[in-house]
Amino acid sequence: MLTQTGKYSITSSYLALIGQQPRMRTADLVWTSMALPKHRFITWLAVQGRLLTQERKLKLHIQVEDTDCCLCDKKVMETTLHLLVKCEWAQAIWKEVEQWTGIVLHNNGIKPTLERIMLKHWKKVKKETIAATCGAIIYHIWRARNWKKFKGKSVHTKEAVTQIKKEIIERLQFLSSSKKTESCRSF
């Protein structure tokens, strides 16, 4: 495909094939290098509504025996919003991490949380660190759900929070050779 200047460009050919896709405003926070790759991937799936929750299985016409959330054992359908935000088990995780960081992290969903982080008048490194912390929370909620559903093992909230803290601190230490992380070492 030729550009406006008459030269061939792979980029212009690619864009001609797929069309101009809207850029997700929160993508930079999801894919930040502050977050571990496994956290980034699960967070991306959650933001896109692609986690294979019981609700999503039903939408995909996959037979489901039990649609209830397995973390809180309430008679509530397991949706992405319920599992990651509204579930009592998940809320306990969010609250403990909020106490640790001193920052209120969530409100009505994952996208609104990331959008709120973007709107804060914080330095970029703080936004990325808080977003990475949210990603760790999302990952560990999803992991606890899978352990209970497929292994029959319950994960205690304290255990999940300890792991979240450990992973965030280790990631900050790993990236500490860059001056970028200096301001986030306080928590």
UniProtKB/TrEMBL annotation:
Taxonomy of the source species: Eukaryota, Viridiplantae, Streptophyta, Embryophyta, Tracheophyta
Protein name: Putative ovule protein
Reverse transcriptase zinc-binding domain residues: 8-94
UniProt-listed Pfam families: zf-RVT
